[in-house]
Amino acid sequence: MVSAVIDEDTWESLRKAAREAMARAYVPYSKYPVGAAALVDDGRVVVGCNVENASYGLTLCAECGLVSSLFATGGGHLVAFTCCDQFGEKLVPCGRCRQLLREHAAPGMVLDMPLGIGTMDDILPQSFGPEHLNEARKRNNS
Ligand code: THU
Questions:
Q1: How far is the CA of 139 from the centre of ligand 1 (A)?
Q2: CA 42 to ligand 1 center in whole angstroms
Q3: Phi and psi (nearest 5°) for 23?
Q4: Which of 22, 61, 84, 116 is the most exposed place for a label (fewest CB within 10 A)?
Q5: DSSP 32-88
Q6: What is the pTM of this model?
Q7: What local confidence, expressed as pLDDT, does residue 1 receive?
């Protein structure tokens, strides 16, 4: 699969959007704000920040907010993704969020990570997705 090619200005504006979202995080428990930003295949930029809860397990990661915003603002697929901590340092998405992003990634989506630009396949190889459900449905109906 061919990876999306994102120029450095675009990465910088996504990183800035992630930092701005990070500054709005609600993190009274961990005090670990995270911001995420992504370019959508129609040119929109969507962002998210983590939102914690007194019932700790209900915490919404920044990526959850970003995916909700993706749909709330018109849908589409993610082409390029970045997320950062309180110092503006790049982060990798947690395991659950890798699966979440996988479902809404455009083919060839690229992620801006501490060790460099990578793809969903780099961080979630041999992953499970909707096509597995569709395949099983087809076999059941044939
Ligand atoms: N967090 C995210 O928002 N995204 C990730 O991919 C990693 C973890 C948040 C959840 C929690 O509010 C805080 O970081 C500490 O785990």
A1: 38
A2: 27
A3: -65, -15
A4: 116
A5: ---EEEEEETTS-EEEEE-B--SSGGGPBPHHHHHHHHHHHTT---EEEEEEE-TTS
A6: 0.96
A7: 82
Whether the predicted pLDDT of 142 surpasses 90: no
Beta bridge partner(s), residue 81? 38, 111
Integer Cα distance of 6 and 112 in angstroms: 10
Q: Give the contacts of 99 (CB within 8 A, at least 6 positions apart).
A: 124, 127, 128
Distance between Cα 34 and ligand 1 center (Å): 6
21 has a pLDDT exceeding 90: yes
* pLDDT per residue as tens digits for the range 46-80: 999 999 999 999 999 999 999 999 999 999 999 99
Burial 35-58 (b: 16+ CB within 10 A, else e): bbbbbbbeeebbbbbbbbeeeeee
Which pLDDT band holds residue 105 (cuts at 50, 70, 90)? very high
* 52 catalytic residue (yes or no): no
Tokens 């930003």 sit on residue: 37
Pairing of strands 105-113, 45-49: unpaired
32 CB near ligand 1 (under 6 Å): yes
**Cβ of 61 less than 6 Å from ligand 1:** yes
